[in-house]
Automatic annotation (TrEMBL), chain A:
It comes from Phasianus colchicus. The lineage of its organism: Eukaryota, Metazoa, Chordata, Craniata, Vertebrata. This is 6-phosphofructo-2-kinase/fructose-2,6-biphosphatase 4. It comes from the Eukaryota. Residues 33-42 have a biased composition (Basic and acidic residues). In the C-terminal section; belongs to the phosphoglycerate mutase family. Residues 33-105 are annotated as: Disordered.
UniProtKB/TrEMBL annotation, chain B:
PROSITE patterns: PG_MUTASE (PS00175). The lineage of its organism: Eukaryota, Metazoa, Chordata, Craniata, Vertebrata. One of its GO terms (biological process) is fructose 2,6-bisphosphate metabolic process. Gene3D superfamilies: P-loop containing nucleotide triphosphate hydrolases, Phosphoglycerate mutase-like. It comes from Phasianus colchicus (Common pheasant). Residues 33-105 are annotated as: Disordered. This is 6-phosphofructo-2-kinase/fructose-2,6-biphosphatase 4. Residues 33-42 have a biased composition (Basic and acidic residues).
Amino acid sequence: MGIFSARLNQALCGPAWLWRPCSVQGFGLEGPRRPFHPEHSRFSPPRRTGSPSAAARPGPAPPAGPAAPRGAEVERRGRSRSRPRMAAAASPARELTQNPLQKTWEPYDNGLPAGHSAQRGVCMTNCPTLIVMVGLPARGKTYISKKLTRYLNWIGVPTKEFNVGQYRRDLVKKYKSFEFFLPDNEEGLKIRKQCALAALNDVRQYLSEENGHVAVFDATNTTRERRETIYKFGEENGYKTFFVESVCVDPEVIAANIVQVKLGSPDYVDCSNDEATEDFMKRIECYKNSYETLDENLDKDLSYIKIMDVGRSYLVNRVMDHIQSRIVYYLMNIHVTPRSIYLCRHGESELNLKGRIGGDPGLSVRGKEFAKSLAQFINEQNIKDLKVWTSQMKRTIQTAEALGVPYEQWKVLNEIDAGVCEEMTYEEIQENYPLEFALRDQDKYRYRYPKGESYEDLVQRLEPVIMELERQENVLVICHQAVMRCLLAYFLDKPAGCKVESIFLNVEAVNTHRDKPENVGVDRSREEALRTVPNHL
Amino acid sequence: MGIFSARLNQALCGPAWLWRPCSVQGFGLEGPRRPFHPEHSRFSPPRRTGSPSAAARPGPAPPAGPAAPRGAEVERRGRSRSRPRMAAAASPARELTQNPLQKTWEPYDNGLPAGHSAQRGVCMTNCPTLIVMVGLPARGKTYISKKLTRYLNWIGVPTKEFNVGQYRRDLVKKYKSFEFFLPDNEEGLKIRKQCALAALNDVRQYLSEENGHVAVFDATNTTRERRETIYKFGEENGYKTFFVESVCVDPEVIAANIVQVKLGSPDYVDCSNDEATEDFMKRIECYKNSYETLDENLDKDLSYIKIMDVGRSYLVNRVMDHIQSRIVYYLMNIHVTPRSIYLCRHGESELNLKGRIGGDPGLSVRGKEFAKSLAQFINEQNIKDLKVWTSQMKRTIQTAEALGVPYEQWKVLNEIDAGVCEEMTYEEIQENYPLEFALRDQDKYRYRYPKGESYEDLVQRLEPVIMELERQENVLVICHQAVMRCLLAYFLDKPAEQLPYLKCPLHTVLKLTPVAYGCKVESIFLNVEAVNTHRDKPENVGVDRSREEALRTVPNHL
């Protein structure tokens, strides 16, 4: 138990790094993010007497359990995992203390988290970013916005999209016709301006008050004047503005977009498809006269990417920082060719049977049977140019071997590293590391195994896989439970739309899913801790 | 010893994955790459009777030790580490066997590596790539070529640049004047064509016979006709061609480029700087009339990136595969603003003192002293907008804390994971895992610790750090021995065999400043004593060496 008492001592305070290290004027985000507070934890909050920097920090938060408000969830994903963690400057009394949940080292000052004080005036690359879509209707702006938002959230950058069309629909309940969008429709203009302003207000709220990092402003923004207004808005609020224009002249692509997303729009709920298409084409015309594309010379001082013909080519101008560079790379790798991604785990392993986690075991008899069934299934699906990826662990490679097709081994697809808990049963973890086990149940996403990884680490590790999955067409990924959860979370994020079919291949296997138990406190009984452990040998 | 006898059994054959999974017609690379063969190893080669696929594979290679030919070195870095490892299809008798060096699982067929047979006809994204530079003289083409070549080699994609100017200098020993480049100088034209052809021949040799993955063809290639010739050459040989054009109209940038790299050129060894500049400006003029830039419409079917004004903007067209996408991302992140990168390790740790590797210890007394000296040094350097990066390990964070400035913690900067050997002394590793210890000495770059990492793994892990270092300006990276070796190898263009032996002593800052095509290195010892943690490659790396031989190069410790 020696190791635990040491950890208990270190755990007296919550971590202090959940702030944004940026203090641009007018940005209003000097304060730290709310510190993590393990729910039902026995750890008492630090004594907060005397230090003004401690007083500025919010007190111990209410338990952030399943019933916590949405805001808390956002905060949980709040730190930009795409950027490394930030820390602060020295004072003589500073000492490093290990965060018991994430196993990170953090400076403490007289027993108090010291991250905050030294941050003044330092503006790192992760200032809030305002992404402004540009383009005629039906150019995939909303598709790009949603997809980009999903990606950024997944890699840990809190991002929200603001669709001005939705504001309009909320304000004007009933859409009549394209005439609303005519350049000389004064009432229409007024309402549209009102909506844009309301959306920008919400952008400000999100970036400056709700700790958002990136806002995606999804509207046509087809005139230089409008873009200038938005750019100024960004400047005044201390945001970096990045424009994303989608230019497309291929009538087939536009028609496909209209069929795919516009006909289902609430605007056209009472029309036939032909009526809707006709009206929408006229709506596009309303913008065409005043449309000013981003220009190599006129807009040479702006940061932007211009996407031509759904990714045939790109013009990229003045990429200013890390996040813009990541955004550009992502946008250059996505495509819209129809395809399917197949995710599965390896066949049942010898350690699965025994209820042990991790390790590098081979397949059980049933696991091998699954591999054969998978081969048959893949054969029957008759998938064009299917790529098969595995991890570098024996059980996924054994599964892929049965397919009789080439495959690629990715080390980054390896299962989460459970550190000192590798090859243990849950019962053994509870017995040997009861505190660790409880901490994991309290925040499974951020919990890092001693000498191992967290789900949060895993997502970072898997980013190149997601990027390459975006680039590829049909792919079968044979991976592991935690890895598959991370990949699935990316593809299933609600707004970005992915149809999921779940196919059980009719080979029995042990259940390896352990639900979150009701009691996640560090003082729970063994029985309470093990209540949700699935059956095993 | 149970674990070792198991490994010995698994080690009967070399791995079979060192082939390129691509069989484009005319490509001539159906055969596998030469299998890895541990030097002085006791493992006997597989019996190669009866199987035609085994016969096609090269027999047991001679020990690929320090005396091995250059070809072998290329092969060691041969597999594209930027792409995951490839493996092959099933046959009923296939079984997985763990490679003892890299701890990877590989299919074996009746005791023989089985990677090969199933690869026919499958063309993955890592076909050979021909990168063709485009642009007037003094637009940084050679800078980009060299830098890109260095990056790709570092991430494990065997890449070579072919500079046509160098072929010309080799052929025509003495450069006279710009008149050689006049469009109506027939002899000049003939020689230049000859050089271009010779270079393309070498490109073919490299990509089709020497297992190269990427060739960078560095010449002006300013006419559409010339580019078409090269594109056809690529098509005929099964290469994907990607053009990289650098367009620059800023006279200051051009002048700076001439001063930085052209005045030192062998062409101008006997001239004054003014004469050289004047001649070079005229040389540029020779190309201007016929220069056709890559055009959005005319060249819309080509894959290319056009870099405008040293990275102010980029036009990117038809990126075809993974490697092109990586290249584009890299080119969009590099810049030429003068800056310095400071690399150092954490201060001496408690475990350093004891001669133990890894772990997550705090600083020793001297380590803390170093942290203070580092603070003073950084202060005195008075560096503009210095970023400070650490790993997530206590010892680097403690070192950074002393600086009194903000810093960023990167998990990917953590020290190499020594797996089961974490926190051991070399003596303990030799005692508990003598075979592992010998394998590591045989190929330290590719050796993966049981349940840990290899240097090769580390390079992959560090790629985002390199990318961000390229994007940034002044940065101090406080890291670890193995990590620092990997970073240093990138900046100094060191091959994989040398990388794990680069000297990165404690309490010493390396200041790297880009100059011309390379990097100036200043090594600054901050005058705080520390233990030596560098263990040289011992002479005997055989698995049957004695304990004494294995430990001969272990540095002193408590």
